[in-house]
Design a protein that fits this description.
Blueprint: H1 19-30, H2 33-42, H3 47-75, H4 79-87, H5 93-126, H6 137-154, H7 159-187, H8 190-195, H9 206-221, H10 224-228, H11 234-237, H12 239-267, H13 277-283, H14 287-316, H15 322-336, H16 339-343, H17 346-375, H18 400-416, H19 420-423, H20 429-451
Helix pairs in contact: 1-7, 1-12, 1-14, 2-12, 3-9, 3-12, 3-17, 4-5, 4-17, 5-6, 5-13, 5-14, 5-15, 5-17, 6-14, 6-15, 7-12, 7-14, 9-17, 13-14, 14-15, 17-18, 17-20, 18-20
Length: 452
C-alpha cells in the first residue's frame, strides 16, 4: 500500500470544524443549482406528492449521512479510508473509484447549470446568443471555462477555503431565496400551486421520484466522514450534519418545485427540460444579481464535491497530496461537463447519471454502515487501516464478501425497478440497500462464527 500520510486519521486535538461550520457546509452543499433542478423535475409529481417524497426520501438518506458522519468522527478517517475496514485495503479502491466518478459527475452537473447562468449573463450584458440558439455554443464554452477557474480558486486552500466559501455563500443564498419567493407569490397564489395538475404524459411515478431524490441525497453520504473527521463535537458530525443537509435540500428543492410550477401556471406550459435555475430566474425577471448568486451556489456545492472526489483519489494513490488530487479532479470535471452538450439534452444526461448513482452507491453505503455498527460493534483498529497484512487485509487486500454483495446489490436494483408495487410507492433504492446490508451482515456473521 505504500507509506500513508500522517493525516490519515485526524486526532481530536487538531480538529477545528465547529457546529456552525458543519451546518453551513451541509446547507451550502444542498442549497445549490442541482437541488433547485431536482425540485423542478419533481414538479412532474404535483406539489403535494413531490413534497411528501422530498421530505421522506431525504430524511432517510440523511440518517445514513449522520451514521457515516459518526464513523468519521470516531475514527478521524475519511469515508473512503473507513471503507478499507469493510472492503479491504485494496478492495476500498472499488468504492473510491465509484465515489470519484460520482463526485466528478456532480461537479459537472453544477458546472453545466452555472455555465448556463454565465451564458444568460453574457446574453443580458453583451447580447450573446443563449445555449440552444444559433451561436449559443460560444456563451456555454465561456461559462464552463469561467466556472472551472472559480472552482480551482475555491479549493486552493483545501478544507479551510471550503469553510470560508460556505460562510459567505449561505448568507447570500438566504437573501436570494427570500427574494425569489416574494417574486413567485406576487405572480401566483399558493392555492394555484397546490392545485396545479401535471400533464398526464409528463407525470412522474412515485417510485421513480423516490429513487430520484434518494440518488441525489445518497451522493452526499459518501462525503460525510470527509468532513465529520474535522468536527470538534459528536453532535456536529451527526445531528448538525443531518439538520444542515435536510434544511438545505428541502429549502432549495422546494424553491425549485414552487418556481417551476408557478411558471407552468402563469404560462400554461410545463416542460421539465426548462427546470434549471437560470431559465426560471430569467423567466421570473430576477435579473443579473440572481444569476450571480446561482453561480456562487455552484461554487459552494462544488467545493464539497471536489473535496470528496479528491479524497477518493488520494485513497487510491496514497502518495498523491490532496492539493494535487483536487487540481486533477477539477480538470476532469471540466471535461465531463461537455457530455450534456454532446448528448444534446441535459435532462437525459442527468437522469442517466442518477440511475448510475442509485445502482452503485446504495449497496456501498449499506455495507459501510452495517460493518461498523453491527459487525465491528463500533470498534475499528484505525492503525490497521494503513497496514498491509493487518486485520483489514482479508484476501490479498480484498474482502470479496463486500465486493460480491455490491455486485448483487447493483444487479438487484434493476430487478426491483421492474416491480410495479415499488414503482408506485417507495422505489427500488432503499429496499435494495436493506437487502444488501442484511446479506452482508448474514455472511460476515456466519464467517466470523465459523472462524471462531
Amino acid at each position: 500500500m505504500g507509506k500513508q500520510p500522517e493525516t490519515f486519521s485526524i486526532p481530536l486535538a487538531k480538529r477545528r470544524t465547529t457546529s456552525w461550520d458543519m451546518f453551513a457546509t451541509w446547507v451550502g452543499a444542498n442549497a445549490n443549482n442541482g437541488t433547485w433542478y431536482i425540485g423542478g423535475v419533481m414538479a412532474a409529481c404535483g406539489f403535494l406528492t413531490a413534497t411528501k417524497i422530498l421530505v421522506l426520501s431525504s430524511a432517510i438518506a440523511y440518517v445514513c449521512l449522520a451514521l457515516v458522519g459518526y464513523i468519521g468522527f470516531k475514527t478521524g478517517v475519511s469515508t473512503m479510508g473507513v471503507a478499507r475496514a469493510s472492503f479491504g485495503l485494496r478492495g476500498s479502491f472499488l468504492p473510491s473509484i465509484i465515489n470519484f466518478t460520482q463526485f466528478i459527475g456532480w461537479t459537472a452537473v453544477n458546472t453545466f447549470i452555472a455555465a448556463t447562468s454565465v451564458s444568460y449573463l453574457l446574453h443580458d450584458l453583451l447580447g450573446w446568443p443563449l445555449w440552444g440558439q444559433d451561436g449559443g455554443l460560444k456563451g456555454m464554452l465561456c461559462g464552463i471555462v469561467v466556472m472551472s477557474v472559480l472552482h480551482i480558486i475555491s479549493i486552493a486552500s483545501g478544507s479551510r477555503s471550503v469553510q470560508l466559501i460556505e460562510r459567505l455563500g449561505i448568507i447570500l443564498v438566504f437573501v436570494f431565496v427570500i427574494w425569489e419567493s416574494i417574486i413567485v407569490f406576487q405572480q401566483v397564489s399558493f392555492e394555484q400551486i397546490i392545485h396545479w395538475q401535471v400533464p398526464t404524459k409528463l407525470k412522474l411515478s412515485s417510485g421513480n421520484a423516490f429513487d430520484t431524490v434518494a440518488a441525489f441525497n445518497l451522493a452526499w453520504v459518501t462525503a460525510a466522514a470527509d468532513f465529520s473527521r474535522f468536527a470538534r463535537k459528536k453532535s456536529a458530525a451527526t445531528t448538525t450534519s443531518f439538520a444542515g443537509a435536510l434544511v438545505g435540500v428541502l429549502w432549495f428543492a422546494m424553491i425549485g418545485l414552487i418556481s417551476t410550477i408557478s411558471i407552468a401556471v402563469s404560462s400554461g406550459n410545463y416542460d421539465p427540460n426548462n427546470s434549471d435555475p437560470s431559465s426560471i430566474a430569467s423567466r421570473l425577471g430576477l435579473g443579473v444579481l440572481a444569476l450571480l448568486v446561482i453561480i456562487l451556489t455552484s461554487m459552494t456545492a462544488n467545493a464539497v464535491n471536489l473535496m470528496a472526489a479528491g479524497s477518493a483519489l488520494a485513497n487510491i494513490f496514497a502518495k498523491l497530496k490532496l492539493k494535487y488530487a483536487l487540481w486533477i479532479v477539477a480538470g476532469l470535471a471540466t471535461l465531463v461537463t461537455f457530455i450534456p452538450m454532446i448528448l444534446g439534452s441535459f435532462l437525459a444526461a442527468f437522469t442517466a447519471f442518477l440511475d448510475y448513482i442509485g445502482m452503485v452507491l446504495g449497496p456501498i453505503i449499506s455495507i459501510i454502515i452495517v460493518d461498523y455498527f453491527f459487525c465491528a460493534k463500533q470498534n475499528y483498529r484505525v492503525t490497521d487501516l494503513t497496514i498491509p497484512m493487518g486485520k483489514y487485509w482479508y484476501t490479498k487486500g480484498v474482502n470479496w464478501v463486500a465486493v460480491l454483495i455490491w455486485i448483487i446489490g447493483a444487479g438487484v436494483f434493476f430487478l426491483l425497478q421492474q416491480v410495479s408495487f415499488l414503482q408506485s410507492t417507495i422505489g427500488a433504492t432503499y429496499p435494495d440497500m436493506l437487502l444488501s446490508g442484511f446479506l452482508y451482515w448474514l455472511i460476515m456473521n456466519f464467517l466470523s462464527k465459523r472462524g471462531n
